[in-house]
Write a structure and sequence with these properties.
- The structure is a single chain.
- Helices cover about 35% and strands about 25% of the residues.
- With about 230 residues, it is of the alpha+beta class.
- Strand 3 and strand 4 form a beta hairpin.
- The radius of gyration is 16 Å and the shape is globular.
- About 45% of the residues are buried.
Length: about 230
Amino acid sequence: MKKLLLALVGAGLVFGTVSNLFADPKEEIKEDTKTLKDFTSMPERQIPPAVLRNAKGFAIFHVIDVALLVNGKGGPGIVVSRTANGWSGPLFVGLGGAGVGAQIGGKVKELVLVLNTDKAVEAFSHGNVKIGADLTAHAGPAGASAEAETAFTNIDMYSYAESDGVFAGASIEGSVVSPRDDANNNFYGKKVTSADILQGKVQPPATANRLEKALTYVGKGAIHNASR
């Protein structure tokens, strides 16, 4: 319980700090889209096509230094899910807590979580998610090898990290992901819930079109040619 409280306090500090990092949601989504393309276009370390085809959703984060945190790491991000009618709009979230600085290291800049299970999507629909307690997250397979194509287990999420241009797996156990309610309400122009967003019940504004196109592409297992 003490560890969970510490993680939540740390996460709260992160969310307060990152709330103004991307004042313009258009810019945040642009960067999230770029990150998704990057992680699906590296010949040696790309997220395998089979993982992309089977993904229930994605969480994309930009990791920053936060001096107020004991571990000094956290960042803004979005979560999206695959619905019966395509991809949901983005749920704006923040990553923080005791696991961030200790686990993903000091040089990680971007982080992508592939949601492998319906349980993972459901967890993000209900508020705070503690990685390692509520959901399991292991470093994901990489490349287009036959081994990577068949590396499916009951793991809720695969994690992929970018550190100074190098893509690798990362452990983030102990981290907490929480919705950024103000950002979500402002983006959708009304009060919305995490569940409504991830279930596709809320129509995203045109700002999200770029992200939706990228998700449609990579969700079929296609490999992107990343470009800004």
